[in-house]
Amino acid sequence: MQALAPASPQVAPAGRTLDVDNLTVRYGSAVAVDGVSLAIEPGEVVALLGPSGCGKTTLLRVIAGFVRQAGGRVLVDGTGIDHLPANQRNVGIVFQNYALFPHMTVTENVAYGLRARGQRGAAVDQRVERMLDMVQLGAFRERLPRQLSGGQQQRVALARALAVEPSILLLDEPFAALDRNLRLDMQIEVKRLQRQLGLTTILVTHDQDEAMSVADRIAVMNKGTVEQFDTPVAIYDRPKTLFVNGFIGTTNLLPGKVMAVVGDTATVALDAGATVRLPAQGIAAGSSVILSVRPEQLVLSPVATADSWPIEPGLSLPLGSQLVHEARAAGGTALKIVEPRRRSASETQRRFCALTPDARPSLFPRSTHPATE
Length: 373
Hints:
single chain, Rossmann fold, CATH 2.40.50.140, 6-stranded mixed beta sheet, 8 helices, 34% strand
């Protein structure tokens, strides 16, 4: 892949508002999307993130006009578009498999949407030339798709979607078929172009790292509903449900019981053998709870402290600049602990674990995680 051009200066958002209002989609008796509402700002990138079958692609297809909803509305700049067929919604879409015409050159593929709308002549040629320059493929204009790499095909598909000047850009898992390094390059490229054009963009993905790096806000979906719609930082640091907490990033789940609540501080006795104090987060004394702790919020120690608990060390795996330690606490609770790779694995056989001083773990009622009962 060619080196990326320097980022263009960011412009004021030229995109449109997109409102999804109480959208419901049914396939027979099955509910694929259940009363979803999202308010998306002009020029914003929103990721629909969730496991397979959660409804994210169905929601995208409703916005595009490929699927008809059972209830609710889709509005662009406050005007409903539900009555419009897909080819009249002025929505650009990039599919996971690129969907390029194999018998057409790069130029012909990019021009296809314009010509399908009845445009001809020099205006089409100029628009195609601009799009190819934007995605840095001007030198490949006469090639067929089979003569391009995966990343180049992806950029052709993106240029074709942008050529028609869409009011909304939809990306349906566009990087899934690319290798890791190329995927990162394409994420940067798409973000650069989106910022340059100020397009309101919806990205469907099941890759949490992709959503966290590309999106301004993330809608985490589960079983047809949105469990949290927030910024990447808020979703990682302040998840509202145990599902969101577990789906975004890696976490350790430690059962315990709230022994007392004084002011906003709860004292929690963990089944692992320690007593910790943390914000009560609305949970009352006497409640059985799950403490969710990120691996980087734990620290290992060779000696016991008032707030630590004993663990049985396992493997230590070097991952670049970090070490990932496996361990087990009382009752067989599996733990993962992450720390900078300052020591060799042989020097890290420490037998106690505690929260880091700045840890802000999340607390949930134990009833939200039946497997821990």
